[in-house]
Amino acid sequence: MDTHWPIRRPVRELRPGDHAWLAYGGEEERRHVVGAFIGDGLAAGAKVVYLAGPAGAADRPRMAGSHDARLLTVVPLVPSGEHAGADGGADPRAALDALTREVARATADGHHAIRITADLTWAVSGPDAPVPLREWERRLGRAIGPSAIAVFQVDRRRRAAAVLDELRAAHAVVVTPDPEFEDAMLRIERTFQPVGLSLCGELDASRHTVLDAALATVLSGSDRREIHLDLAGLGFIDLGAINILADVAGRRADRGPLVLDRMSPQLRTLMETVGWGMLPGLRLGAGA
Predict the structure, then answer these.
(1) Domain spanning 181-284: CATH 3.30.750.24
(2) CATH 3.40.50 domain residues, the chain
(3) Residue 224: pLDDT above 70?
(4) Which of 47, 59, 87, 183 has the greatest number of CB atoms lying within 10 Å of its CB?
(5) From CA 237, how far away is CA 205, in angstroms rounded?
(6) DSSP annotation of 188
(7) CATH dotted code for 7-176
(8) pLDDT at site 159
(9) How many helices (H) and strands (E) does the chain have?
(10) What is the pLDDT of residue 91?
(11) Residue spans in the chain of domains classed CATH 3.30.750.24
C-alpha cells in the first residue's frame, strides 16, 4: 500500500526545488492560489513562466497591482499536429519544449529565481491522455531543474480519483492557500468547498478586527449564497466574536445563511440555549 503523504505548504512557504501541485475545485480557488504564487514571485523580482493551456485567454493569470511586465512570460499553447491532446488540447511535446526553452532563456538572462505554473488538466486526462502521467512527471522534472519553484494545477472535478491518487503519490508537496491571518493564538484560512473560512485556535477580543477583515474578504463576492465557517479547531470564542457573526449573518440574510460547521458540543449547546441559532441568516451546520 502507498503510504506516501505529501507535505502541505502555503504559497508563501514554497522553496526552490519544490515541484508542487494544486488540485482545485473551481476557478475561484485556482485564481486565489495561483494569483498569490505569481504575485509573490513578481514582487520578489523572480522570473515567472506561465504556460497557458488550451483554454486560451481564460487560462491566463489576472494580476492586480503593478509589476515589471518583463518578468512574466505567458506561453500560449494551441492544438498542434498529430500529438495534440485527447480533449483537442495542446501538443504535449510542444508544451514541454516551450517550458524547457523558457527556463533556459530565463537562466541565460541571469534570473536566479524562477517560478513556473501551468494548468495541466488537459494533459493528465486518464487513459486517453496524450502522455502517460508518470512520463509527464519525469519530463517536467527534467525541464524545470532543481532550483525553480513549480506549481502545476489539475481540475479535480474532471479527473478520476485514481488519477488524483497517482498525482498525489508523484509529488512531494501540495500547495495550499496562504492563511488570511496567523499568529501564535489564531489561524484563519480560506476554504473553497464549501466556500468560507476555517478557524483554529482562540478567538478573543484582541482578534475581533482580524475576524471582521477575514469575513469581509470572503463575503466580497456578490453572488455568494451559503458561507460556511469551520469551527472544529476553535478552542475558545468570546461572546463579542459570536455577536460579530450574528451581525454579519443578519446583514446578509437575504443572500443566504452564514453556516457554523463542526462546533464543539459546548459551543453548540450555548448557541442553542441562548437562541443564536434561530437568528435570521445564521444556521448551525454539521456537527463536530
Answers:
(1) yes
(2) 7-176
(3) no
(4) 47
(5) 9
(6) E
(7) 3.40.50
(8) 73
(9) 7, 13
(10) 67
(11) 181-284
